[in-house]
Design brief:
Blueprint lengths: L1 E2 L5 E2 L1 E3 L5 E4 L4 E8 L2 E6 L2 E5 L5 E7 L17 E6 L2 E7 L4 E5 L1 E2 L6 E5 L6 E5 L5 E3 L6
Antiparallel strand pairs: 1-2, 3-4, 5-6, 6-7, 7-8, 9-10, 10-11, 12-13, 13-14, 14-15
Length: 142
Amino acid sequence: MVWNSEGRRRQGFVDKDMNVAFTLGQEIEDAGDFHCGLASVLVFNRIGFIDKTGSLAISPSYRPQHPRQRSREVRFSDGVVRVRLDGFNGCYINTNGELIGKFSQGSDFHDGLAAVAVVINADGKVVDTSADNVQGYQSPNR
């Protein structure tokens, strides 16, 4: 948190020398850490992303995954982030804000992979970060 000259609390970011890099506008309710050059922000209960200058890089047009989710829980990994779009909890966008995959459910990417579920047959799937290689996943319990 950064305090402005009027003594009001504002959220912001500092650089490694502890200088204020920028403060966030009052419309921003919450902000996360930077990952892959972007930080998530919560604006009117929508998640978007800012760059390291504090400018919006990806418009806040995504709903939180669940009602109490804060923006700091949403972060890029391997250049991809999971967002909620049109009722789908397994949507993935890249750092340019381009939709690269859409599934009914999904997990975050780690080491280039994310577990996803497909509505049609409810089987678990694994998708790589390019979203063009979906591999079937058979549960060991089947």
